[in-house]
Amino acid sequence: MKGNSAGIVRPYDHGIFSWFGYRFPLEERMRMIKEAGYAASSVWLGRTERMVREGERNLIPSIVRSLGLDFEYIHASYANCNKIWSDSPDEREIIRSDYLGDIAYCAEHRIPTLVVHISKGLNPPGVKESGLEVIADLVRASEDSGVVLAVENTRQPGHVDYILENIKSDHLAFCYDSSHDFLVGQPAGALLERWATRLRITHLSDNDGLSDKHWLPGLGNGPWERVARAFPVESFSGYLTLEVLPSSREFAGGMEFLLLGRERLRWFEALARKLRGAQAAPQSTEAAGHGAHDAMPDEEGHRSR
Ligand SMILES: [Zn+2]
Questions:
Q1: What are the phi and psi torsion angles at 176 (to 5°)?
Q2: Has this prediction a pTM greater than 0.70?
Q3: Is residue 54 included in any domain, yes or no?
Q4: In this structure, is residue 14 part of a structural domain?
Q5: Residue 303: inside a domain, yes or no?
Q6: How remote is the CA of residue 118 from the centroid of ligand 1, in Å?
Q7: Which of 13, 38, 152, 285 stands the most exposed, by the fewest C-beta atoms within 10 Å?
Q8: 245 and 17 Cβ atoms separated by less than 8 Å
Q9: Centroid of ligand 1 to alpha carbon of 259 (angstroms)
Q10: Does residue 302 fall inside a structural domain?
């Protein structure tokens, strides 16, 4: 939580994933994100992002930072992620080298966190030790290069549990996706509560309880009170970050959608603080408020604000 020495709670800064459903060039999307008042953004490192597809990915960090946005994380492409649990060493090597390449990209550009999926679909292969060894290699590379690997819950929260239970490292963290959490048929918020101390990235969005819509928080029927009750406002010092798509064409221009997104984040934060009965924890500087980013040793010199 953020506060100052007088014990006044400082609200969370807001982030948003750079793909939010509007087909503008990345630079334009970033400009809109900045204009709407977000402090941070993050980028998909897969081929559906035009600059990645066209070999311009090394230009992305300067676009983000030149606007004064913090580059919160890279989201890895998850096309091959089920190969982590493959019995074939060759298949496991494919995903290992994919994700090692993404870690290297983060390190080269001083991006503090890489978000990865570790399973996809409703029936991924089960967990096994050979897969854990793949993740352990990725964590070692992350430790060596000052990056934090954040594993995201998708449809199989048990895979997240298995990895976080078995590998303890400051460079292995949790990325909580609320829309995915709402669809897996276990009490929403339970996973967040379980891994609250390792929470580093939030993917906040809502859905209709049927499919992974990624609507703005509160615009679907997700059990937000459960998430808010589980949300560790006392310890989490990262961004409240949206990973969202518009629910309809009512948000014609994009900007209105982005501004409503910020309003929805403030709504969620107020709900979480109310339900947690949060009191301010004394904290002296703004930089301390971003403790979740501490793994980048020379990060401060490269922060854009
Ligand atoms: Zn994801």
A1: -95, 120
A2: yes
A3: yes
A4: yes
A5: no
A6: 10
A7: 285
A8: no
A9: 22
A10: no
- Report the largest interatomic distance among the alpha carbons of the chain, rounded to a whole angstrom: 57
**How many structural domains comprise the chain?**
1
User: What's the CA gap between 53 and 183, in Å, rounded?
Assistant: 31
Closest by CA to 20, choosing from 243, 259, 213, 240, is 243
Distance 132 CA to ligand 1 centre (A): 19
Question: CATH number, domain at 211?
Answer: 3.20.20.150
Q: What is the pLDDT along the chain (305 residues), one digit of tens a residue?
A: 444 445 678 899 999 999 999 999 999 999 999 999 999 999 999 999 999 999 999 999 999 999 999 999 999 999 999 999 999 999 999 999 999 999 999 999 999 999 999 999 989 999 999 999 999 999 999 999 999 999 999 999 999 999 999 999 999 999 999 999 999 978 999 999 999 999 999 999 999 999 999 999 999 999 999 999 999 999 999 999 999 999 876 677 899 999 999 999 999 999 999 999 864 444 433 333 333 333 332 322 232 32
Domain that holds residue 199: 2-296
| 239 CA to centre of ligand 1 in angstroms | 16
